[in-house]
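From the pipeline queue, job 12 of 40. The input is one protein chain; the requested action is below.

Action: predict structure.
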Amino acid sequence: MREHEKFMERCLWLAAAGAGRVAPNPMVGCVIVHAGRIIGEGFHREYGGPHAEVMALASVKRRELLRESVLYVSLEPCAHYGKTPPCADLIIASQIPSVVIGIRDPFPSVDGKGIEKLRRAGVEVITGVLEKECREQNRRFLTFHEKNRPWVILKWAQSSDGFMDRERSKEEEGRVVWISGALARRVVHRCRAREAAILVGRVTAERDDPALTTRAWSGPHPLRMVLDPAGKLPRHLHLFDHSTPTVVATAHPSPDEENLTFMKITPGATLPHQILSYLRSAGKLSLIVEGGRETLKAFIEAGLWDEAHIYTGRVRFGAGTAAPRLSGVTTATELLDDTLLTVVRNPSSL
């Protein structure tokens, strides 16, 4: 079993190279082993491109060795025609006698069908190798298909005495009050580049006028979303600059414009459920909820969050907008110069 785990670890390492480029598909890595030696490997590089198994098989120079080899893959091979042909068929045609799989694929068109097809063809199939690690790597994809919603990350910065914002005068509206340092802000932008969508509430949009882009990091911008139930946000804000796709959730939608879509919300219904339902239908695997306090609180009270990224700076405010209270499991801490990043996981998402 230790040998299986060793090669599955390699699959996970390879799969990670596809982060940020394969969604809404999962990250998948594959290695082919003959007599204890890797003779081929590959990973899913980009959405719509060849799957990991295809890349690994194509890299094998001595094809005759496949009949005596073991194929390791972090996620169940597909068994249907999508943007690419079924990987299970390719494995069978390659006469590989044994396949070791990390986790079953919950996508309805797969969901055990790849395993069944392999076994019917006489292929030995072993499942559940490094299952926990494989699930963790593809937690966004799995949450999307198992819970029918995106993976939700709560994010906020707070002062050393627990405030998200200090008391402001009217003249200070639209100016950012920085709590975290420059390195922490770069890490925030790196996180944005890895996630599919980002959301702020009306108050944050008015007070801070955020751009919600990845300008301090190389990578795609997430889909921007803002809550504006009454439809009163001023159009001079960065969120209305048409620079990147943006969704305004409002009870009073206007006609859509270039890179600006208006999502109609239903008064009285739970806003977090409506937001996540919209993102689910749009195929978005993850969402960062970046504030403010009431928006964060709504997701916390609904139990619709998976992890929280809390950036604590050294500044003290003494009074102002108190940071949300969260009950969860601390899974990581990192000191980013003058800012402490704490990652908290919802126990139901561990």
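Job complete. Residues 2-15 form the longest helix (14 residues).
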